[in-house]
Amino acid sequence: MDAQSVLKNERLQDRPHTPGADDRVAARSLWQDAWRDLRRNPVFIVSGLLILFLALAAVWPGLLTSTDPLRCDLSRSQQSATAGHPFGFDNQGCDVYARTVYGARASITVGVCATAGAALVGTLMGGLAGFFGGWFDSVVSRLADVFFGIPILLGGLVFLSVVPSQSIWIVVAFIVVLGWPQIARISRGSVITVKQQDYVTAAEALGAGSGRILLRHILPNAVAPVIVVATIALGTYIALEATLSFLGVGLKPPTVSWGIDISSASDSFRNAPHMLLYPAGALSLTVLAFIMLGDAVRDALDPKLR
Q: What is the pTM of this model?
């Protein structure tokens, strides 16, 4: 090769590179791909809008109704819909619409806080067990097996029946205690899979510490399955709170809860079905919205479904 050709090649190498379509595709991360797919998924859009509306009702119920859910008039007991009271009245003469709106606060608070707590504990325990292995992995796995052997509904009936006060935070703590093993198993398996990847081996060869490898390389790539399971579990925990309240061991009056309203309306369903249909419909719609959201997130984050 002559001197002129060598000079030409050097100039081409020094020329600034303009990223093209292939470079942008290569640089796009899993999360960017997932967000792009979610924005095009009608299931995600519908469930997201519904959850946004429910969150609005939980945080600012006064925007949807000006009626006090605890203000009751026995003279209106079991009355059907009237002007200003579209859902009618319950056994105590309380406005069913106001109680349905305010009931979203307790149910969503329990679901979100319990999911966050179970996800935090499960991710921490399962992630450390999968990363370090050895005796710590054995202890966490056996501990998770013990909690897995306790049916969550039966455990709630036993545990909450002996607790003197069934506040929202007591119910949340119970769900976290029995809910973390499921997420811990998912987190452990995901961390073990990611730990075997080449980029983790390369980071270890370059002298990166365990903390840096876990936080910078393993956790961001192992958290996707945890997010999917936690999103679906959120709807399950809302239904669990309503079930425990329906059975009389969950939330207690004067707390406004869909489970409490369904329980009080179950004996009067034939005479006043509106008392049960509206809180039960709100509960079903909420659980369905979170399950749909979880399915959409799973489809977006699972590379096998692409």
A: 0.82
